[in-house]
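Regression test attached.
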Amino acid sequence: MGNAIEVDRLRVVRGGRPVLPDLSCAVASGTVTGLLGPSGSGKSTLMRAIVGVQLIVSGTVKVLGHPAGSAGARARVGYVTQAPCVYGDLTVRENLAYFAAIVGAGPDAVRDGVDEVSLGEHGDDRVDRLSGGQRARVSLASALLGRPELLVLDEPTVGLDPVLREELWTLFHSLAEAGTTLLVSSHVMEEANRCERLLLLRDGRLLADATPAALCDQTGTDDLDAAFLRLIRTTAAP
Amino acid sequence: MSPRRTFATARRVLLQLRHDPRTVALMLVVPCVLMTLLRYVYDARPAVFDRIGPMLLALFPFTVMFVITSITMLRERSTGTLERLLASRTAKADILGGYALAFGAATVVQVALATALSLGPLDLHISGNAAVVVLFAVVDALMGMALGLFLSAFATTEFQAVQFLPAFVLPQLLLCGLFVPRDRMATVLHWLSDVFPLSYAVDGVTRAATSSAWTGALSVDLAVVCACVPLALALGAATLRRRTA
């Protein structure tokens, strides 16, 4: 089992500010890896670099053995941005049908996709008439179509109630068991507990790359919230 | 580029239009209303209506398509769906090709309605071939669409995109021969009008309306306008960046 993502000495500058000064990290295949960090720590920028839509200054990003953003990588990656990006003026099913055609998913994919994110009764509703949480689920369902080998999900559970969050995390784990690699960003610690591995970012630097248990051991605490705080305080900003 | 993804994109754009009946109505009705207005502005001078009517038959769809496509493309960019498509296996040509097909189809309907109304109830007299006039009007609208897609790359807000109408379309409109024949303009303005694609569109439609003979000049006009469509689409693809800051 190799690495699905390999980031080597990645440097990204946005608006004159080095968002990721010199980042190296890896994500193992078939795992659910959490990407954590305060807002502004570079999580979304790293994810954009992984899916190949971020301008980078130097360094390399490899995705499933292909350079990030190359045709080979793009064909195997599903990406959900932080703000739901689907067509507000189309219905849920029309959105999914379009994205299914893009990835060449089969005829059942749309029906299954709607069910996976529990939007069955809203299939024929226009997306701009749905709630924020429902829109986020349409966005997620579109990324799951065609079962990409790597899913890059930027805060997919924001604004969802605990029951739905639970359902989605169960879905994420069943996808990982089937061999999909998931990189999920979040700033909810309770979700970090559900990841097999955590990458902790702060100011574009990797603070930790460990399992949740190891992180607690390392910091001498028994809860991730405290572990996270302690790590941030002991590694003072440069 | 894949035909499946291109057609899926065209279908999606048309579905979006279908969900927006007001835009469809504006797109189809506005050129008709403008032609009707023009007809009654020149109520006492039908010869003038016969002279400038065909030009405007080409200009109205060109302008409407320019605005609609640049705004639609910008919206795709600002809602993040463009980034999502560019992160997937979609080729840039699939996106632009899909837009071109969808709006091209809309254009045909738009031009057919405006021409039918003008030649029928509004009593526009042309001594040339109506089919060639329609052909020019459709190709002109396609050019408006392609230019709109290309220029939308340079707008970051819808406010800017709307300003492109006075900035890029109105100068072409002033110099295309609608107000003063191009050969009677000052030399510099004549040169300028020679490089504006809209001049060839208006020349072509005028020639088509005044004579049913297919001349070499008509072929040149058609070739220039036709060449502008893929050229603007190619420039649009070149300015569509997969990676952004």
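Expected vs. actual: identical. Chain B has one domain: 3-239.
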